[in-house]
């Protein structure tokens, strides 16, 4: 089952893939993310993050509340670069957001 | 068991640190420890664009970059890595947008060719043969080197780290250096959150934190760290071969082997306070400039943006070597945005320098003393 249970649909990673990496010593979500791209796809970790944290919790014995879920980065929802560019040009190019 | 003594302690688990560790171990040094405050690549290495180009404007940079590129071509075999470092040699297409820049490119290509780098000066029509959807409006010319490319920074660092560990190097992650012990102007040890390690040699490969590490032993390095941002898009089928880059337009953009586009630019007025949060201004300027040069990217959704630290030196060239104030304290820092691509050279040259061997490439001019002596290096081709 582990081989056909997908944990990360965006980056094609199965439960077995994640367990193998944890066994190799990648013991935080950030490390797993960087080495395997879990959580880097269009879902931004919404599907895989809780599943991976559960696996990490089982492997390390730490409760999920003590595990670092990594940094949540913008945007919340993907946006076309053209939409950002048009908006920027409409506002007169140089904008000074804080 | 945490080691209490070491022959060499390297501070920083980015690609520079593990490359130095690997090379020292390969040369037979025993008892090497690498200390990393978080995990490998958690600093600048894991946040960088991971491009490697041989198209530089000084002989020194051309040679170091060529050395590194040659290494990357054979890295999987040399390091015996069981993963994939994803080295895509799709070339770098560098665009000029002013006559001055075009003139500089002519000189650069001449220099590069004389050093065995197969770069070419291209007309805009020739550039469009490589990137058919390039909008050449406002551009003058381009240079191209097919040997340039980009890699996966996590796997490349892991490849070095795994090879170093096989040679006996100890890598302590989630371990912070809290102090450096020196007596009578000589390095004696390193204090960490997991205990003290006695050593006579400390190598500062701390990237964005290099100046802070140096201060622990009373050394003021003329370095500061500046936030630089990147964004990544959704994945699509391959449409862009080379890294597209322009100094004057201030951008770089690549399509990684997995299909996503990664792009970045340098912004004026970026904070210099070790901040790595994301900002609006970068996103807007990036979207505006890249969709002008590569119009089909308008329809690409961007998924994520992040930031890392450029460790800037006054002449934007690295600092390699010992410092005069403290015996046994070495620096490999100040890469100013090019630490990843130069890492194979950094590893070999620093190992040679520390062991008192003749260096494969001349690097005396990269000593930190150059700033006091006014011998800064002028490199015309930096972002």
From TrEMBL, chain A:
InterPro entries: BFD-like_2Fe2S-bd_dom_sf, Metab_Enz_Cyan_OpOx_G3PDH, SoxA_A3
Keyword Transmembrane: no
Domain SoxA A3: 5-86
Keywords assigned: Oxidoreductase
A Pfam short name: SO_alpha_A3
Top-level lineage group: Bacteria
The protein's name: Bacterioferritin-associated ferredoxin
UniProt source species: Alkaliphilus hydrothermalis
UniProtKB/TrEMBL annotation, chain B:
EC number of the protein: 1.5.3.1
Matches recorded under Gene3D superfamilies: D-Amino Acid Oxidase, subunit A, domain 2, FAD/NAD(P)-binding domain
SUPFAM superfamilies: FAD-linked reductases, C-terminal domain (SSF54373), FAD/NAD(P)-binding domain (SSF51905)
GO molecular function, one term: sarcosine oxidase activity
Keyword field: Oxidoreductase
Domain FAD dependent oxidoreductase positions: 8-353
InterPro entries cross-referenced by the UniProt entry: FAD-dep_OxRdtase (IPR006076), FAD/NAD-bd_sf (IPR036188)
Pfam families reported for this sequence: DAO (PF01266)
Name of the protein this chain belongs to: Sarcosine oxidase subunit beta
């Amino acid at each position: 089952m582990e081989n056909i249970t997908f944990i990360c649909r965006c980056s094609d990673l199965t439960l077995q893939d994640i367990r193998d990496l944890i066994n190799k010593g990648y013991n935080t979500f950030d490390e797993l993310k960087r080495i395997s791209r879990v959580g880097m796809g269009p879902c931004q970790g919404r599907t895989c993050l809780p599943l991976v944290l559960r696996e990490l919790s089982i492997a390390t014995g730490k409760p999920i509340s003590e595990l670092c879920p990594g940094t949540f980065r913008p945007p919340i929802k993907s946006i076309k670069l053209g939409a950002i560019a048009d908006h920027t040009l409409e506002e007169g190019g140089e904008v000074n957001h804080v | 068991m945490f080691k209490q003594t070491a022959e060499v302690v390297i501070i920083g688990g980015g690609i520079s640190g593990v490359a130095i560790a690997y090379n020292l171990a390969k040369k037979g040094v025993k008892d090497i420890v690498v200390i990393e405050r978080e995990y490998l690549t958690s600093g600048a290495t894991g946040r960088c664009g991971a491009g490697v180009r041989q198209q530089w404007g000084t002989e020194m940079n051309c040679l170091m970059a060529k050395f590194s590129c040659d290494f990357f071509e054979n890295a999987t075999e040399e390091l015996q890595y069981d993963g994939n470092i994803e080295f895509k040699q799709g070339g770098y297409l560098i665009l000029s947008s002013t006559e001055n820049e075009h003139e500089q490119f002519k000189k650069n290509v001449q220099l590069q060719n004389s050093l065995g780098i197969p770069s070419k000066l291209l007309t805009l029509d020739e550039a469009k043969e490589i990137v058919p959807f390039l909008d050449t409006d406002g551009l003058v010319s381009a240079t191209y080197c097919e040997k340039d490319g980009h890699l996966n920074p996590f796997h490349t660092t892991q490849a070095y780290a795994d090879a170093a560990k096989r040679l006996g190097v100890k890598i302590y992650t989630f371990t912070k250096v809290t102090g450096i012990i020196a007596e009578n102007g000589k390095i004696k040890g390193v204090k960490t959150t997991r205990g003290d390690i006695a050593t006579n040699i400390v190598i500062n490969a701390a990237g964005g934190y290099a100046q802070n590490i140096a201060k622990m032993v009373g050394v003021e390095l003329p370095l500061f760290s500046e936030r630089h941002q990147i964004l990544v898009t959704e994945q699509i089928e391959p449409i862009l071969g080379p890294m597209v880059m322009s100094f004057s337009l201030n951008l770089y953009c690549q399509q990684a082997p997995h299909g996503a586009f990664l792009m970045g630019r340098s912004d004026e007025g970026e904070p210099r306070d070790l901040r790595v949060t994301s900002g609006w201004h970068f996103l807007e300027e990036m979207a505006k400039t890249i969709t002008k040069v590569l119009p089909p990217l308008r329809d690409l959704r961007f998924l994520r943006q992040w930031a890392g630290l450029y460790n800037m030196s006054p002449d934007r060239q690295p600092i390699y070597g010992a410092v005069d104030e403290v015996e046994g304290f070495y620096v490999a820092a100040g890469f100013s945005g090019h630490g990843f691509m130069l890492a194979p050279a950094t590893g070999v040259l620093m190992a040679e320098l520390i062991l008192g061997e003749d260096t494969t490439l001349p690097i005396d001019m990269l000593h930190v003393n150059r700033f006091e002596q006014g011998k800064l290096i002028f490199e015309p081709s930096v972002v």
